[in-house]
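Minimal example, chain plus xanthosine-5'-monophosphate.
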Amino acid sequence: MIREITALELRPEKFIEEKVEEIRCSVGGGRAINALSGGVDSSTVTMLGHLALGERLTTVFIQNGLMRAGEAEQVTSFFRVLGVPVEVVDAREEFFAALKGVSDPEAKREAITQTFYRDVFGRLIRERGAKYLLQGTILTDVDETVAGIKRQHNVFAQLGISPQEAFGYHILEPLVQLRKDGVRKLGQALGLPKDLFQRIPFPGPALSARVIGEATPERIEMVRKATQVVERLLSGHGAFQYLAILHEDRVTGIRDGRRDFGRQIEVRCWDSVDAREAAPTRLPFGLLEQLADEIIQAVPGVVSVTYNIANKPPSTIEAV
Ligand code: XMP
């Protein structure tokens, strides 16, 4: 049973001191690797890990082909400014090979997990002579996985899986007692710029969690383009998270006076404190219309744009 530390209870200085000590004790004189996706959790754990281990920590950004437009460049330049070197590891072919022909949501999540942990990190850990992987799992990831709602890509021990036995290395999760609001508070105390600690959440399985059905490079590119529009138009409205989803079904539309059996994009925009419950943001109708127009312009083949108006629960934040 993990003891939760609420954002209100969290004393960042004391927490940082304790976790730095714990990381140093576990890793000893050895080396560790940490995975940085650029989200709030992994950015915060990267800062914590560097404080604890300095040059003995190698930070990698896995380019899995499922990230948002310009993400690798943006994240590496943010961290360069903070004095943290980030290695970009190109694993696009491996991820798309693992996702080929897979359309069931949990099977997709499992394919991503195995490619990350067994294949890519397994190899990196061996190559670098490290024994530990440091990552930003938080309590909400654990809760939903244990409850059987979604297998979050980064949860093992709480499912009775030993990473040491399954993948050959240990996993350290210093943020596992916190939720998103607590992580933001900690990230700020660790010196992350506001653009990073206030970033909207982004899931580990990345854009593949936003493609219903098979996540092919072409379908990921469609949702990537729609995401760019959604993030540009919906930032600054105070929402917790906003995203675009590509549906599997096609619908009949009209283009240039002819029938077009086209694609559908669903927009979701959530008000939430910690992702456990969420409600759709009451966006002005004019903004919804602008979203539809710009998504149709930006993403070839789209004839329908919808806005999700259901709460979590029974909805979830991501579609997959
Ligand atoms: P759901 O879709 O379960 O998402 O309502 C709750 C929050 O978690 C994020 N999310 C993930 N984060 N690994 C992560 O690190 C995952 O596999 C994963 N799936 C969902 C989601 O973006 C939301 O903020």
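Residues 140-141, 144, 150, 152-154, 201, 203-205, 209, 241, 275, 312, 316-318 surround xanthosine-5'-monophosphate (CB under 6 Å). The chain has two domains: 12-197, 211-307.
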